[in-house]
């Protein structure tokens, strides 16, 4: 039988906007020693601003228009941000044959012309010679009609409570705070450094994130538990693989919420330390 105080604990957590899907997760949460975070939308706001455009022949506004159109069928934070930068109504009838490649970018036909927007991995995959860009930022390379058309530099901002969230986890005795991301190395390292993460792994495809979590699961002791925190569609496999999957509910995708064991009703990362503290208190009462 399940002790009553588990229910009290679950009830107490829910008042804080922390939904725990079962009493067994309370116990796992209380033993968490590693907390692994996805970057975009979890530690950062996932709202990118355009802060540079470089192109070959096209006008800036034309490159942004192609970017917004090719991205129009995607729900990735990058897509939403490029559509916002374009700022005009998008005529979806101009866009056909959309193909989104997770961790790479997106391709489609815009007005019947082949357009691609994504990172260096996507350009390599399409055999497009691109110009290296050394700005610290997320670089969206664009190819139009099979040739390189330029790139758009976008950047995301760190959530106001992320640094405090990492500090409170450390204070609560968490051994390792890790950041995983599909984004570029320079961006990832600058975010990780400013947050005081113990480890950072970048340029990962969704499958690489699962492998990284498996590696971490292997090095820790059996008793210590690993939590993964994410919000995206791509995060569902990692959320399931971790000892405990925590989804950020406010911005999160349905797939992530479904795969998670704990759902945070808002997207404040401070709630993770809070959830761990509530679970420990609840476990102390039970045993
Ligand atoms: P994260 O790990 O930060 O959540 P993703 O795995 O979703 O990031 O994406 C990793 C990288 O793949 C992005 O930083 C971007 O370079 C590229 N990418 C993914 N989706 C898109 C898209 N719709 N448009 C352009 N680039 C994309
Ligand atoms: Mg993500």
Can you walk me through this structure?
A hairpin with a 3-residue loop joins β4 and β5. The chain folds into 2 domains: 4-44 and 159-286, HAD superfamily/HAD-like (Rossmann fold, 3-Layer(aba) Sandwich); 49-155, Calcium-transporting ATPase, cytoplasmic domain N (3-Layer(aba) Sandwich), CATH 3.40.1110. The protein is α/β, with parallel strands linked by helices and 287 residues long. The protein contains 11 helices and 13 strands. The chain has a 7-stranded mixed β-sheet with strand order 1-13-12-11-2-9-10, sandwiched between helices. A 6-stranded antiparallel β-sheet has the order 3-8-7-6-5-4. α1 packs antiparallel against α11 (270-286), α2 packs across α11 (270-286) and α6 packs parallel to α11 (270-286). Helices cover 39% and strands 26% of the residues. The two termini are 14 Å apart. The longest helix has 17 residues, at 270-286. Bound molecules: adenosine-5'-diphosphate and magnesium ion (MG). Adenosine-5'-diphosphate is lined by residues 38-40, 71, 74, 76, 78-79, 100, 103-106, 117-119, 138, 140, 181-183, 232, 234. Magnesium ion is lined by residues 38, 40-41, 232, 234-235. It comes from Lacrimispora defluvii.
**Content of β-strand:** 25-35%
| Ligand list | adenosine-5'-diphosphate, magnesium ion
Major sheet strand order: 1-13-12-11-2-9-10
Give me the CATH fold name of the largest domain: Rossmann fold
Kindly report the name of the CATH homologous superfamily of the largest domain.
Answer: HAD superfamily/HAD-like
- The shape, in one word, is elongated
Number of helices: 11
The major beta sheet can be summarized as: 7 strands, mixed
Report the CATH C-level class of the largest domain.
Alpha Beta
Q: Report the uncertain regions.
A: none
**CATH architectural group of the largest domain:** 3-Layer(aba) Sandwich
Order of helices and strands: HEHEEHHEEEHEEHEHEHEHEHEH
Number of E strands: 13
**What is the CA-atom radius of gyration, in angstroms?**
21 Å
Percent of residues in helices comes to 25-40%
The chain-level mean pLDDT equals 93
